[in-house]
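Subject: complex prediction, re-run

Hi both,

The earlier run crashed halfway through, so I resubmitted it with identical inputs.
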Amino acid sequence: MIAASSLRKAYGPSVVLHDISLQLAGGECLALLGPNGSGKTTLLRILATLLRPSSGALSIGGVDALRDPGAVRAIIGMVGHGSYVYPDLTAVENLRFWTVMGGGDATHERLIAALQQVELDAAAHDRVRTFSAGMKRRLALARVVLGRARLLLLDEPFTELDQRGRKWLSEFLLAFKAGGGTVVLATHSLGSGLGVADRVAILHGTRLIVDRPCSDLSWEELRKLYDSLTEAQEATA
Amino acid sequence: MTRVLGWLAVCALIMGLVADFGWAPREMTQGNVQRIMYLHVPSILTAYLAFALVLLGSVAYLLSRRASWDHLAASAAEIGVLFTAITIVSGSIWGRPTWGVWWTWDARLTSTAVLLLVYVGYLLLRAMVDEPEARARYAAVVGILGAANIPIVHFSVYWWRALHQPAAMLGPGRAPMPGWMKAVVLVNWIAFTLLFAYFVSRRMQIARLEEQA
Amino acid sequence: MPYTRRALAVLWKDLLTERRSKESLNALLFFSLLLLFIFQFALGPDRDRIRVALPGLLWLGLILAGLLGLGRTFVVERDNDCWEGLRLTPGDKSAIYLGKLLGNFTLMLVVEMLLLASFGLFYDVALGPALASLCIVLLLGTVGLAAVGTLFGAMTAQLRARELLFPVLLLPAQVPILLATVSLTEAALLGQPLGEVSHWLKLLAGADVVYVVIGVMTFEFILDA
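This time it finished cleanly. Structure:
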């Protein structure tokens, strides 16, 4: 599903990502770990075709993402740091707008059903301006639920969700994978994300230093490795 | 290559100066001030060449995303603005003894001034965008619109003048030029074009180095 | 057609947002009324002086309102990260441009009609006989302003020097539109049939076509990476 080779991103002399290569098959979930500032968001944005890499190759779903980003966008769903909501529109109206823009079917029933899934149906006709951060995050996920994405790119999706929200998201991602969808999950904490991941990769100092199936590593090993890296980073910072 | 251009330009300029002052005779009605035309006309012609290159560079950049096209557009715009400014100032200096005013809203002068404004805006945009990739894209769009606007501006300004003031005064160069005058203008034009090519070439080198820094 | 659906979705979203927040429209309408007073104070109490300058003042007022209103056209997108969301949408991005253009056109048209009406009222100008011609000029002129304003508004929305750069880019591009609309307005107010100044009409229409086409073709480059 994803085939990235030797991706590099530099802003002038400062290199953010160096020689990143990864492969992800359909139906798999990759957990991308890394402390803040390690370039997770940058890598995610390159995968989403929001950023162009300085060099390297990227193919998503068999399409060259660098030559034809438009074709790739149709199959990608992204939930990033931003919430993509218009504050003066209601939840339903926001959802309708983004669904139409994504080319989907925006019937009232489907919109309400999606809001029910993220438990926002009670606030469906409230203006998003009144929403909390967690509610906005759930609205963004509702948008993804309605989309026809085959690849989900999620940047710290579990933050700002309460226990129930996290459970819902984990179940949703598992169901999404079972249906053949692929997920890349970026997070800086070893928490809920690992429950759904098949592979784990760690970004550290602009490079991808670990990339193994979850079955290979035990949780303690991963914890130790990750902690040592974070400490090393803090020591040099 | 650039150095050769530079030397060629210097030689041509010297020839031009000789032609301007040594060979060309004193013009009858206007006197020696008329010699400014040998600066004024080649300048605007070079400016048009510059802005054509801006259009070319802009379109080519958007299609290919190769930075060198953007460097061409930016360099050509800078030098083009310089030559446009020279055109306007020399026109103004010519106008003063000839018509008694520093500035007149004559069609040609006005549309040249608007041209200057468009491309100064282009340069200001470039100065205010930090990220080089976004800068190149935005500048390309402005470059394309600016170029497309040039003929529209020309017509509108000419008609505007015609509506308000019939051509009471002969603009510079409106009278048919005698052969020798054309020859001198040509020599200077070639010199200016070479000089322009040299400047653009150097400027592009600098741009390439800046990008790598 | 999905393209049309998306353009209309953008238009619908903008109109709805505007109706709810009333941010732009109220301020612009009030601004237009303020201009009446400013022009009057700047040109003095001599009624004839204002009457002679009227076509120019009308379009000057619209351009000033445009500088305020059009510069903000993509700010709501920028403020809420929706810009990125728009970048992620599949398909031809020019649909977004056309949707925004229609919204801006409507906004500017409303402002212009108010301006025209209040000029007629406050400066005591008989608009009746010229109304049909004036409407045609209004429509054509506003298209040109909105087309370039939407394009440059998108470009400058992301820049820190937006308030400075937007007028600097917009005004030179508006020169031919200004010249054409003022000449046409003058002719209309003098009672001339528009056929006599048809060359200006053609220039204006031609400029509008050029600007909209360039906008449609280059908008994706402003949005894209």
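Chain A has eight helices and ten strands.

- K.
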